[in-house]
Amino acid sequence: MKPSLVVLTGAGISAESGLRTFRDSDGLWEGYDVQEVASPKGWQRNPQLVLDFYNLRRKDVLAAVPNEAHFGLARLQEKFDVDIITQNIDNLHERAGSKKVLHLHGEILKMRSVRDKSRSYEIVGDINVGDKGPDGAQLRPDIVWFGEDVPRIVDATALVLSADIFVVIGTSLAVYPAAGLIDHLPVHVPAFVVDKKIPEMAYRKKLVKIEKPATEGILDLEEALAKL
Questions:
Q1: How far apart are the C-alpha atoms of 166 and 189, rounded to whole Å?
Q2: Whole-model pTM over 0.70
Q3: Domains in the chain, number
Q4: Peptide bond before 134: cis, by omega within 30 degrees of 0?
């Protein structure tokens, strides 16, 4: 039995593959106010604008390639039973070879109808106003927008509770509810945080901080895990 290694990843790991997020520039995402393109109210006001925005993001994801941090996490599967919980909507973890990836905030390469949250469909092209699902309702990206519930947080919490080792990489732990996952980690479980700017977590005794970008810190992480 391999030890259970649970990894929480965030925007920082995708940013090093050229995929920017709203955190890069004071609430703007590629020049758009996130409330206009990533919220239910924005969708109600201008659905085509929202669809156009995500159509562009989908093209960006398809053009991007996994980086060393993605590949490093995939390598860890040789020694650990790795579950990745990602806040990212791209598929770079999967393309790097990670087998078990839970997308907290949905996936840019999937779509669903506005009526049925339980079924999603693969999409690599564009979605436009008038495109409808099998239930006759308008299709939208299968993405969790600001102000919407994060249903997979329950599954993610269960993974954290069962972890033998916990890793946070490429996130400043500022976006909730994902940031609160580390609070569910049992105190005896070793934790590692890899990010350019790590918040203070004095209450965690077994915490190793690697204050580096994900593509650099992954090597330090692999070395540290090899010593356990």
A1: 7
A2: yes
A3: 2
A4: no
Both tokens of residue 207?
């915490």
Residues 138, 39, single domain; the answer is: yes
Residue 182: give the domain boundaries.
1-16+66-105+150-228
Q: Give yes or no: residues 221 and 160 share one domain.
A: yes
Per-residue pLDDT of the chain (228 residues; tens, 9 = 90+): 999 999 999 999 999 999 987 655 566 787 888 899 999 999 999 999 999 999 999 999 999 999 999 999 999 999 999 999 999 999 999 999 999 999 999 999 999 999 999 999 999 999 999 999 999 999 999 999 999 999 999 999 999 999 999 999 998 777 778 888 999 999 899 999 999 988 776 557 778 999 999 999 999 999 999 998
Distances (CA, A) of 135 to 40, 51, 132, 139: 20, 19, 8, 10
Tokens of 27: 């609430």
Same domain flag for 26 and 81 = no
Residues 204, 172: Cα–Cα separation, whole Å: 16
Considering the domain architecture, whether residues 129 and 216 belong to the same structural domain is answered as no
Both 55 and 70 in a single domain?
Answer: no
Q: Which two tokens stand for residue 90?
A: 């791209």
Active-site hit among 70, 105, 184, 188: 105
In the annotation, is 93 catalytic?
no
